[in-house]
Amino acid sequence: MAPGHRRDALAVGLALAALILSPARGAFALDPSLEVSQYAHTSWTVRDGVFKGNIYAIAQTPDGYLWLGTEFGLLRFDGMRSVPWQPPAGQTLPDPNVNSLLVTRDGTLWIGTFAGLVTWKDGKLARRAEAGTQFIASLLEDRMGTVWVGTLEAPHGRLCALRADGAQCYGEDGSFGRAVWALYEDGSGTLWAGAQSGLWRIRPGPPRQYAPPMEVIGLNTGDDGRLLIAMHEAGLRQLVGEKVERRPIPRPGERDRLLQENEIDSNRLLRDRDGGLWIGTVQHGLIHLQHGRTDVFTRADGLSGDVVLSLFDDREGNIWVTTTGGLDRFRELPVTTITTKQGLSSDGAHSVVAARDGSVWIAALDGLTRWKSGAAKVFRSESGLPGAPQSLHEDHRGRVWVSTDRGLAYFRDGRFVPMDAVLGGRVHSMTGDEAGHLWLAEDRSLVHLRDGRLVEQVPWSGLGRRQQANVILAGLEPGGVWLGFWSVGGGGVSYFRDGQLRASYGAPDGLGRGHVPDLRLDEEGALWVATHQGGVSRIDDGRITTLTSRNGLPCDSVHWTMEDDDRSFWSYSACGLVRIARDELRAWIAHPQRRIEATVWDAADGVRLRSLAASEFGPRVAKAEDGRLWFVTGEGIQVVDPRHLAVNNLAPPVLVEQIVADGRIQGPNLPGAAVAGVRLQARTRDLRIEYTALSLVAPEKVRFKYKLEGQDRDWREVVGVRQAQYTNLPPGSYRFRVIACNNSGVWNAEGASLEFTIPPAWHQTIAFRALAAAALAALLFSAYRLRVRIVERRAGEMSAFNERLMKAQEQERTRIAGELHDSVMQQITALSLVLGTAKRKMASDPEAKEMVVEVQRKLIDLGGEVRQLSHDLHPPMLKEAGLPEVLRGYCDEFGDLRGIAVSCDADESLAELSPGTALALYRVAQEALGNAAKHAAPTRVAVRLFRSGGDVVLSVADDGRGFEPGRGEGGGLGLVNMRERARQLGGTFELDSRPGHGTTVRVAVPFRAREVKPADTPEARK
Predict the structure, then answer these.
(1) Chain centroid to CA 1001: how far?
(2) What is the pLDDT of residue 18?
(3) Label partner for 349 (CA 20 to 30 A): which of 159, 264, 302, 927?
(4) How far apart (Å, rounded) are the C-alpha atoms in residues 405 and 402?
(5) What is the pLDDT of residue 263?
């Protein structure tokens, strides 16, 4: 192509992109009763930096990816991320400008560029030379599998049919003009072409041109089966018989004069799977035709741009639109919003009520709207409405009541009839019963009417309240009414009847905390109470059970509750619209501690989230005769149809895209469902595995579970995150698995997997580890032997030290015993003699003599104790006679002195104990007997000295009053001394005592025999 011709083709291509005509079929269609503005709309603009340049074409491959043909190359899009597609090394696209895309039934992606056609399948890029090196303007696969290619060339464009057995091209005679812009195959198999020269029928029969010869850039079928034709500068046409005529379009309203005059600058046509017609225009954005109704969506409404380049219907029913400003997606929402665009009097809705005749009434800031059979009618003052509407109610006769800022009225014969009732302020809620009672909760009081006459008016202060009721509900008994209060006034609910409060419930009774925005009676007569901070409470015959987030409720701030026709439980809360299945709710009612499963629709599903109730007037929710739920959000009115929820039943394809190790892509840079055999480098530190799931309805709500087999014990679940990271994995073989579910909770349980291996470094090999283990074992054994020697030496040193310490202690005890005997005893004896002499010389004073006798007696007792203490400090026969004999003698002497029966059983073989051990055990026996005499008041004490294996055991047991160990009784310092002696000898100390059951002291120490010196042997003595 000559440079001038190429520039001309480029300019035309930028203005007129190709129509992609073979959308995949799949999950669900858009609701045809809705306008474009009521669908979920997401826009990605060029200004956001997600894309750069124009997107001319869209296609979807069987793996679920969207492919975007742009002026800067081909992009792969998963609904969250767009990734520039890179051809295999050494290959390139004929031109970076991609103008048309097609995915054929065998999964091949056909890529039409400004300079030729290529195909991509199974990782291979192939050039299709049959189409030449020209601008590829349009692509189509017909029902026979033939791929048709329309080109833009100078001096004339061509139409080529590519089959397995070859190619056949048309238009060499210039009949198509410079370009074939659009291709379309209708339901009968007729193939149509839109060219610069006009409309052509390619088959059956020879090609035929239709008049007028005006440039055709879009083709499709109308709802009446006629061929629709988008003509450049001529608007929308249709083929009627053999003639091309204007296609009339229903008037969309007053918003666009050009559309009213049928001057539509259409350039793209798409018929969705539900039959709706989408028209892309050059200047006026997007037009939607459905069931005789027209609505327009432009840049002013949020479209990325007013110049539409392409339209596409994906396998899940999403409608994709590309413009000069970016990319847009439209999808159906579970929750529909009705605003002024659909006929509501004002977006600031206060309350809603459903009437028996099938109509729904919405009170808003600027009038009252009646919605019936899809049509809206607004009532204002000219219809008798006294003022701005607030609360609504339908009475037992089917009359709709409305409270306004200027009074009360009811609807009759197409007008509102005002009432003479004097109101003391705003009416926040109204209710009534079958007996004709009408109750109003106004600012100052509770008003009770019957047949239009005032029955009673009770100030809120008369009910012990500082603030009006937020919501009221007629009870099951005639004339009874339930009241729900604001938390500022104390919250809670009360039941009022016959001028008295009959019952009241609050948080201390188990009711949910916070103010009460809604009350509802179910078919069993139980009262359901929605609370702002405490979930939903159920009152049944005075018994309260409360459903909160602890039981599985998504959040505790609930605005209202409702039951649908299938008895499922619905609630509107701060975290979204919640549905609990009937069986699930019944199970909770039977077992209130049970955890429930709930479905939640949030902002991504079209629900307007509010932290508090959206209005101070009621009712805030109504169930219409057709089963749909209407509720107030403060911004229009929202509607959900429990019987026709938008559910995505297509499980998302799951793909592992690539593996990145230490910042370098190691795995395949193209996705696959299962990838095996990736070998990473040794000592890989940081590992990132990127994956995705191809659900384009709400990709931000896709949930993933992944697990690295060989590392993770359980599945990890994440939402929105599309990569897994691992650090410092040990060498080995791993298998990464990932599964996902779509926005409706439909799981792809098979998912995708990736197998990879991390080889060991030289220091991680089995041989190196075995050698290191052997060296470490040798080192540990050497350390162990060295430690044993040190311990043995220290043990010997400690034993010798203990022996020296005990010897020094005994020497000190001997010195103290001598001092006591030689000094203290002599002084006591001398004092006793002096007292005897004083007594004889004393005059005859009996009382004085008695005092001297008492002192003399105490001195004699003190002398006995000093002699015992001297004996205890220095047992004179221990070294010569041995421990058994000395211990028996001490027990006899102790028993005589204390008046206690002491038995002693001592093994004679223990006479050979070393002096240190014998002395320590003797001291323990002294301490134990002394403690018993001082603290236990026993009648019997049993002392045993015996061998047990390699140990010597001393046991002292009494039948005294006992004590609880650890409470400071039973000897105190004596116990410390006995335990310390046992520890110094490397032994154990045990104490067993209970109040009323005596005390047992048990000491076990290693047996150490007396050292026999040469001078002590018979041979030495000879």
Answers:
(1) 61
(2) 35
(3) 302
(4) 10
(5) 63
Cα-Cα-Cα-Cα torsion 966, 969, 971, 974, nearest 10 degrees, comes to 30
- Answer for the pair 198, 232: CB distance below 8 angstroms, yes or no: no
* R_g over Cα of the chain: 50
Can you read off the two tokens belonging to residue 590?
């039977």
Helix 766-819 to helix 973-984 angle (10° resolution) is 130
The DSSP output letter for 47 is G
DSSP assignment of 311-352, as one string? EEE-TTS-EEEEETTEEEEEE--SEEEE-GGGT-S-S-EEEE
Residue 641 CB contacts under 8 Å (≥ 6 apart), including other chains: 626, 627, 628, 629
Strand partners, 161: 148, 168
pLDDT at residue 395 tops 70? yes
Q: Which among 712, 713, 726, 723 has a CA at the least distance from the CA of 684?
A: 726
Architecture of the CATH domain 654-760: Sandwich (2.60)
Side-by-side strand order, sheet with 73-77: 55-60, 66-70, 73-77, 82-84
pLDDT (tens digit, 9 = 90+) per residue, 735-768? Answer: 999 999 998 889 999 999 988 999 988 777 777 7
Residue 97 contacts residue 86 (beta carbons within 8 Å): no
What does the longest C-alpha to C-alpha distance in the chain come to?
169
* Distance in angstroms (rounded) separating the CA atoms of residues 282 and 233: 10
Q: Which of 271, 169, 176, 180 is nearest to 217 (CA)?
A: 180
pLDDT, tens only, 251-262: 655 444 445 444
Q: Do domains 3-333 and 506-645 have the same CATH topology?
A: yes
pTM of the predicted model as reported, rounded to 2 decimal places: 0.70
Q: Which amino acid is at 268?
A: R
Question: Which tokens is 459 given?
Answer: 């100030």
Domains in the chain: boundaries: 3-333, 506-645, 654-760, 765-874, 881-1022
- More reliable by pLDDT, 264 or 1005: 1005
Angle in degrees, CA 203, 207, 210, rounded to 5 = 105
Would you call 299 exposed, middle or buried from its count of C-beta atoms within 10 A (0-12, 13-18, 19+)? middle
Q: Where are the alpha helices (DSSP H) in 874-1001?
A: 878-881, 883-898, 915-931, 973-984
State how far Cα 128 lies from the chain centre: 50
**DSSP summary character for residue 366:** T
Q: How do beta strands 901-906 and 940-948 pair?
A: parallel
What architecture is domain 881-1022?
2-Layer Sandwich (3.30)
Tokens (6 digits) for 343: 């006929």
Distance of alpha carbon 320 from alpha carbon 830, whole angstroms: 124
According to DSSP, the residues that pair with 504 across neighbouring strands are: 494
Residue 969 pLDDT > 50: no
Q: For residue range 519-542, list pLDDT tens digits in order.
A: 999 999 999 999 999 999 999 999
Mean pLDDT of the 440-450 span: 92
Q: Are 482 and 449 in contact (CB under 8 A)?
A: no
Give the residue among 925, 965, 948, 928 at the shortest CA–CA distance from 1006.
948
Give yes or no for residue 101 having a pLDDT over 90. yes
Second-level CATH architecture of 3-333: 7 Propeller (2.130)
Percent of residues, the chain, with pLDDT higher than 90 = 53
Strand-pair category, 308-313 with 293-297: unpaired
Report domain 506-645's class: mainly beta
Q: Which of 105-109, 664-668, 939-943 has the lowest mean pLDDT?
A: 664-668
- Could you tell me how many helices (H) and strands (E) the chain has, helices first? 11, 70
